[in-house]
Amino acid sequence: MRSEFWQNVVAQAGQNGAGEQLPFFSLAPMEAVTDVAFRHVVSIAAEPEVFYTEFTNASSFASPKGIHSTRGRLTFTPDEKNKLVAQIWGSRPADIKFMAHKLPELGFKAIDLNFGCPDKAVVKSGGGSGIIQTPDLAREIIAAAKESGLPISVKTRLGYLRVEEFRDWLKLLLEQKIEVLTVHLRTKKEMSKVPAHFELIDEILALRDEIAPKTLLQINGDVKNCQQGMELWRAHPGIDGIMIGRGIFEDPFCFEKSEGGHSRQDYMNLLNQHLDLFDKHNTESNPRKFEPLKRFFKIYVRNFKGASDLRAQLMLTKNTDEVRQVLAEFGENYEDMIENYARVSEEYHKNKALKSKT
User: Fold this and answer.
1) Does residue 257 form part of some domain?
2) Distance between CA 255 and CA 229 in Å, rounded?
3) Quick count: other Cβ atoms within 10 Å of Cβ 187?
4) Is 226 annotated as catalytic?
5) Chain mean position to CA 229
6) pLDDT class for 287, splitting at 50, 70, 90?
7) pTM score, two decimals?
């Protein structure tokens, strides 16, 4: 029987006019990206049905010395609890069990196990996609997490070195009767250097239907927005969910159901809201470093005249107040700057035309 958490997620996705169940959409868990502040920014722009925390190391959580490093990763607000999944990773079943038992006490209603991260340090420790090479350990970790009583899902890749590994690897995971299987359609070796293997979706669906028809299948890799995700679903209607990762860096409005244009001011408003949320969650008990916030500037400051100059100025700032000051000055001088750009462009083309005649 499907858990209440995932039943609600599926229900929120709704049906189309023909009565077909539509796929749910989620924002992929990303290190130093999907924290509580950014999740709320995405919700303001266009909200998916599911969010995931940054992935959190179970061994750090189980350690008196390391647990402090996990607090920010697991921070969430009450309005998130019905659509937020705690993503955890590790290679020690005892630590996974310990953390999984504690997560309900923190208010989480679902757990996702990371069996797909290709980071060298994570893999070297036996976690992430390194678990693909140790199937017996994968079984132990899933069993340990299940003792929490929360619904367990897994995010993984097709294989470690070869694409063909997916047949045995995904079969093993499906046999564990997990609630959701999220498949990034590349191997660990491929990283993100090759296109996602969309050609394998139907075979993966057939494998799911044969082994664990009640397990929800979510696809990840090279899907940049909701419209592209819906096209993928129409081509493969057995897909239950679509996870978007890097697409959020190209467009914070990527979860909009219908594609629409957004003004420069729309993006600036989102950036200012992000600054406010950063300050709100930057508390004495859970201090946040300012420097990592700079990686978000490129999400909002792009595709308009003067964007590169503005980004350069923002990268020199040292706190959110300085960022706000730069943004305010940019906004005040924007019309003059556009006028100057137009004048310079006109002079350039005139000079170019004169040179071509001589």
Assistant:
1) no
2) 10
3) 24
4) no
5) 14
6) confident
7) 0.91
What does the alpha-carbon distance between residue 174 and residue 136 come to, in Å, rounded to a whole number? 14
Q: Structurally, how many domains does the chain consist of?
A: 2
Q: Pick the closest to residue 183 from 236, 226, 131, 243 (CA basis).
A: 243
Q: What is the pLDDT of residues 210-246, one digit of tens each?
A: 999 999 999 999 999 999 999 999 999 999 999 999 9
Contact present, 47 and 28 (Cβ < 8 Å): no
Give which of 273, 320, 254 is closest to 40, Cα–Cα: 273
d(CA 88, CA 115): 9
Tell me whether residue 91 is in a domain: yes
Q: Which of 63, 58, 118 is nearest to 89 (CA)?
A: 58
Distance CA 74, CA 106 (A): 9
Digit-coded pLDDT (tens) for 124-163: 999 999 999 999 999 999 999 999 999 999 999 999 999 9
Listed residue (143, 88, 136, 144) closest to 116, CA to CA? 88
- Which one of the listed residues 99, 117, 223, 310 is annotated catalytic? 117
What six digits make up the tokens of 144? 């340990």
Which distant-in-sequence residues (6+ apart) come within 8 Å of 84 by Cβ?
Answer: 39, 50, 51, 52, 53, 76, 108, 109, 110
Cα angle vertex 238, ends 188, 175, to 5°? 55
Q: For residue 256, tell me if it sits in a domain.
A: no
Question: Which residue range forms the structural domain that includes residue 349?
Answer: 264-357
What string of H, E and C letters represents the secondary structure of 153-219? EEEEECCCCCHHHHHHHHHHHHCCCCCEEEEECCCCCCCCCCCCCHHHHHHHHHHHHHHCCCCEEEE
Residue 58: HSE in the Cβ half-sphere, 13 Å Cα cutoff: 29
Say which residue the tokens 């990034």 belong to: 184
What does each C-alpha distance from 300 to 9, 19, 131, 272, 330 come to in angstroms? 28, 37, 36, 10, 14
The answer on 280 and 245 residing in a single domain is no
